[in-house]
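Feature request disguised as a bug: please show the residue count (161) next to SRPBCC domain-containing protein in the output. Example input:
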Amino acid sequence: MPVTEVSQDVDARTLTITAEFAAPIERIWQVYADPEQLGKVWGPPTYPATFVAHDLRPGGRMNYFMTGPDGDKFAGFWEITAVDEPHSFAFDDGFADLDFNPNPDLPVSKNVVTFSAIDGGTKAVYVSTYASAEALQQVLDMGVVDGASSAINQIDELVAG
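Example output, currently without the count:
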């Protein structure tokens, strides 16, 4: 399994997930740069994502929805704030309605994803920062650790295929 560590820091309002992939940085970057590949791994296995907008550059926006096994849909968005291809990118991640309007009742997180080379593979560190400890707790209660970990754990299979 690629996810090697998950940590939460309530005082810093952060959730950090560390993963290691059996592929070089450039290949892992392509997972995020290609909306079709990203859709296969952004969301738990039973909730694949469909990216209807994908603009991985500063100022860009990504809109997506995840579809559950019963056809239920959940939407979200990324607002890209920084890109250093293929080493890192940053974005604000939020929940949305099916027209991709932000849901004000759910938190928006600031995210930084960094990739570094390790022994022929890639180490990825995903850091999400929330506006408050309560916002962090809200997404923890919603199952973000299990959901994100199961999503990230799909990347090795995708890049091997």
